[in-house]
Amino acid sequence: MSRPEQTEKGDSEFVENLVHINRVAKVVKGGRRFAFAALVIVGDQKGRVGFGHGKAREVPEAIRKATEDAKKKLIRVPLREGRTLHHDVKGHYGAGKVMLRPAPAGTGVIAGGPMRAVFDSLGVQDVVTKSIGTSNPYNMIRATFEGLKSMQSPRQIAAKRGKKVSDVVGRRSVDTVKEAVDG
């Protein structure tokens, strides 16, 4: 009983979302043996997110294994103003294709099923997504992560090119931002 309390204290920074549980039956001489597979999303709601897969004979054990796996696979995603993505991006994994687009403030998370869990754990408040192809949660999440891994902030691009952020973004958008702030 003391073990769950320790994990809650140590992992209070992370939000866990259970996306999918799959029950698998193995037929043996005495009947059926059931096993469970869990898919979990873990994030800190500040730009870090990961997903994990765990299998066990009991559901809580499968969830625990998936959560540990997710914490090992955390990635950092740059967010604009801490609430949305920097640019449009497409992700592709197997038959799963996803489109991720930034949205203006107040839009909310417009995403279906497994992708919603990813963005809730990531801390994104405004995003529009579309899943094309499969509705398999494993492939949808992997495609979403492929898209998020390719996300780059203007600061990263400027550092890579050896320029200032204003040179990468362009004067027009900088002037537009100044007008919006002033007016």
TrEMBL record:
Residues 14-77 form the S5 DRBM domain. PROSITE patterns: RIBOSOMAL_S5, S5_DSRBD. GO terms for cellular component: ribosome. Keywords: Ribonucleoprotein, Ribosomal protein, RNA-binding, rRNA-binding. SUPFAM superfamilies: dsRNA-binding domain-like, Ribosomal protein S5 domain 2-like. HAMAP family: Ribosomal_uS5_B. Belongs to the universal ribosomal protein uS5 family. Part of the 30S ribosomal subunit. Contacts proteins S4 and S8. The N-terminal domain interacts with the head of the 30S subunit; the C-terminal domain interacts with the body and contacts protein S4. The interaction surface between S4 and S5 is involved in control of translational fidelity. Located at the back of the 30S subunit body where it stabilizes the conformation of the head with respect to the body. With S4 and S12 plays an important role in translational accuracy. This is Small ribosomal subunit protein uS5. The lineage of its organism: Bacteria, Pseudomonadati, Pseudomonadota, Alphaproteobacteria, Sneathiellales.
